[in-house]
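Morning. Coffee machine broken again, so started the prediction first thing and wrote up yesterday's gels while waiting. Chain of 196 residues, entered below exactly as on the submission form.
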Amino acid sequence: MRTKLEDGLHTRAGDAVNQAAAIELARPGSPATGNRGWVPLLEASLSDFKDATEAGDTVSIPALVKIIADLALIERGAIRPGSRRQQALRVGRLSLARRLITRHLAKPALSPGMVAEMLGVSVRYLHVLFEATGASFSQTVTAQRLSESRRLLSEKPPRPIADVALSCGFGSLATFYRIFSASEGLTPGEYRAAGL
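Came back before lunch.
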């Protein structure tokens, strides 16, 4: 038997799935597509919704459903300029920025300028997007690189530590050791040996 909260989340999830169908119509090449620039923002927000649903993040789901609906309405021209529109665009761009970081994590040259250019926004605006999260762009990149390095260090069969460092976008082995040790309190080799 489901609780009222679970019923509400299930309904919201269903609404998001319906929004996904609407977004499918907005894909490039669709006759309904007016401004194709919204589609990546919608896709990134839907991916965040999927991740939150799979993780059971009941706090984030309602806000993500609202943002997805607002982005879909913006794409359709139903929401005109205003605070609701600006909030939806900020959240959509932040979602897409995080996905771009993940996609290009292995590149040591990953920078705010690179991501801002892919998003079509200024570097300053990109920094403003991340300020709202409490973690800067570089903190977000470092956290993702550390998370990926911990995952790779736990893989079997073990990969050489230098390969892990380069796969995660650390410019050098020394930088990887310094950042990893400061974060984990262990060297990468000690972390692997501890089986963490």
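The mean pLDDT is 80. Going to sketch it on the whiteboard this afternoon.
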